[in-house]
Here is the input.
Amino acid sequence: MSRLRLVAGWGASAAILLWAGAAAAQNTADNLPPGPGHDEFLQGCNSCHDLSTVTSRRYTPDAWKAMVDNMVGRGAPLNPDQAAAVTDYLVRNFTAAPEAPIPIAPH
Ligand code: HEC
Here is the structure.
């Protein structure tokens, strides 16, 4: 009986460890590339959706700029300087190949 409980306990721990590992594989505040614009990105782009909604995308520089403008229009708390810093940050770290089509921004 006690042996069975021990096994069940290990199973639960393993499940938690696996879950933590899967969460760590996503782009979270902890594993974003450092650099200028990082803090503004965390501040401005984390409230309505996960950061991975942003970091899973690969856009051209123009499309990133349009996307940040779009999100500021929706209420992202960034002044123009901060928005420019976020745009530069995204362009530096998450740019699409130049030949990729420009995505249509969400309405
Ligand atoms: C006021 C709320 C809000 C804030 C703040 C916000 N977004 Fe969004 N964002 C949305 C909504 C709503 C969507 C569309 C639904 C979804 O994907 O969750 C979206 C979707 C996106 C997408 C996916 C677009 C697609 O085509 O699927 C990207 C990329 C994005 N946001 C980038 C950003 C960036 C960069 C910032 C910071 C400058 C930001 N968001 C801040 C509301 C916000």
